[in-house]
Design a protein that fits this description.
golgi apparatus; globular; 7-stranded mixed sheet; 15 strands; alpha/beta; signal-anchor; Rossmann fold; 29% helix; 4-stranded mixed sheet
């Protein structure tokens, strides 16, 4: 489908409101989900330094753009990872997003009994999921290896730095995975939460590392003041929940998600310009990809113009795996192993939204953001893991015979989503290598 063609699907409104998590302000517990130039030197020296600097930059940038593996240090798991890194160095550039899932006999780095950060809705083992095969797969990129997350290395490299996640509940899911992975070395301390417990900040004092989770599911301003049924999206106004905190972070993770599938009315320049899924409202049906494209453009324009220059990581769209229906009408996800490449057919909605992300990322690179924006492409490896979701085990020991509601969007912890943080570590460690080269 052409990048400028909008996709509008006539699907029930209930599908457009997936997994809104409501929190109890008093307890912070989740409740029922609703479904520098060269100056002053002689010319010859200046030219030499410019050439040297340029060559170094090109080498470092090539390393970074392909998510090349970072060099190993003397951490607890560095021996194994050093072998992987040496292997990758011999094969050259590596695209970590292209590969396959292969069996892995090793246990996960943490468990539901060793990590206290797992939300009940993603605690599949505690909730009674008896098959554990989904825990024993690892992502094998074509032509190279992806090192396993190394908490010691991560914390040492991130010492005195901060990382913020901006997005929806899937980012909360990934943050909990990261907190669990790090807890094997140091337990994070919750130092801030808003009244809804959706925006939180943790601190790891031994390394002075700060982690932030900022609730901004659209990244842009949204309200429901005019229509309780339709979200009002202001495509040219960013959500100040995150922009007001942007300056606090050395690294910022951003992602849109399933919220863009909701029934929405679009505003630009304080004027309604169209909508998504608004039959009978006499408005242009522009489609969900229109709003997502405009939102990402507004985000990247902000990143480009901001005086604060963190490394920004754009994480790609997260696919769902509902079969035989959707979340509200009996849809399930009960598979117990990954798809092979030939077994998977992409959902058209996922393809369109993933293409919008690639389009906007490449546009940002062309417009001068090459050194400041990375793409964490988790889409394909996630699409091949229908077995990684809670399904009915979003609840404690559900009666499967009564066909309970399934969660086929979020991910069991531990599980497939831990691989997202394996990849994130490679990006962040690679950036540290680039910065330390100058």
């Amino acid at each position: 489908m052409p990048a400028n063609q909008s996709l509008s699907l006539s699907i029930p409104a209930l599908f457009l409101c997936p997994w809104n998590i409501t929190l109890q302000p008093a307890m912070g517990k989740e409740v029922e989900p609703e479904a520098e130039p060269c100056i002053g030197f002689r010319d010859g020296v200046c030219k030499f330094l410019v050439i040297l600097l340029g060559s170094s930059l090109i080498m470092a940038l090539s390393y970074q753009l392909f998510l090349y593996a970072a060099t190993a240090d003397t951490s607890s798991s560095s021996s194994e990872n050093a072998e992987i890194l040496a292997m990758n160095a011999s094969t050259g550039q590596c695209d970590l997003s292209s590969g396959e899932w292969i069996p892995d006999a090793r246990d996960p780095a943490y468990s539901n009994s060793t990590c206290s950060f797992i939300s009940s809705f993603q605690d599949c083992l505690t909730n009674g999921r008896s098959d554990t095969g989904y825990l024993h797969w690892r992502w094998k990129p074509h032509g190279c290896e992806l090192p396993r997350f190394d908490a010691n290395k991560f914390l040492n490299r991130m010492r005195n730095k901060s990382l913020g996640f901006v997005g929806d509940s899937v980012f909360r899911n990934q943050m909990e995975s990261l907190l669990c992975l790090l807890s094997e070395v140091e337990e994070a301390v919750l130092v801030y939460h808003d009244e809804t417990f959706q925006t939180k900040t943790w601190h790891l004092p031994s390394h002075n590392v700060t982690l932030g989770l900022i609730w901004a599911p659209f990244l842009i301003k949204s309200t429901q003041a005019i229509s309780k049924r339709h979200m009002q999206l202001y495509l040219d106004v960013l959500d100040d929940t995150w922009t007001s905190q942007y300056h606090k972070y050395d690294y910022v993770m951003l992602s849109g998600g399933q919220w863009f599938l909701k029934e929405t009315i679009f505003w630009e320049n304080n004027t309604v310009v169209g909508c998504h899924f608004c039959a009978g409202m006499n408005l242009p049906e522009l489609g969900m990809d229109y709003s997502y494209r405009r939102a990402l453009r507004s985000v990247l324009d902000f990143v480009s113009s901001s005086d604060h220059k963190p490394l920004v990581v754009l994480r790609t769209w997260t696919p769902t795996h509902f079969e035989h229906g959707l979340w509200y009408n009996g849809g399930i996800c009960n598979r117990t192993k990954p798809y092979k490449e030939s077994e998977y057919t992409a959902d058209p909605v996922d393809v369109v939204m993933r293409d919008v992300e690639e389009e906007r990322f490449q546009e940002g690179v062309r417009n001068g953001l090459r050194l400041r924006v990375r793409l964490l492409d988790t889409y394909h490896l996630s699409a091949l893991r229908p077995d990684g979701h809670p399904g009915p085990y979003r609840r404690f020991h559900p009666d499967v015979s009564k066909k309970p509601q399934n969660d086929c969007l979020h991910w069991c912890l531990p599980g497939a989503i831990d691989t997202w943080n394996d990849m994130l570590m490679e990006i962040l460690m690679g950036d540290e290598e680039l910065r330390s080269a100058f």
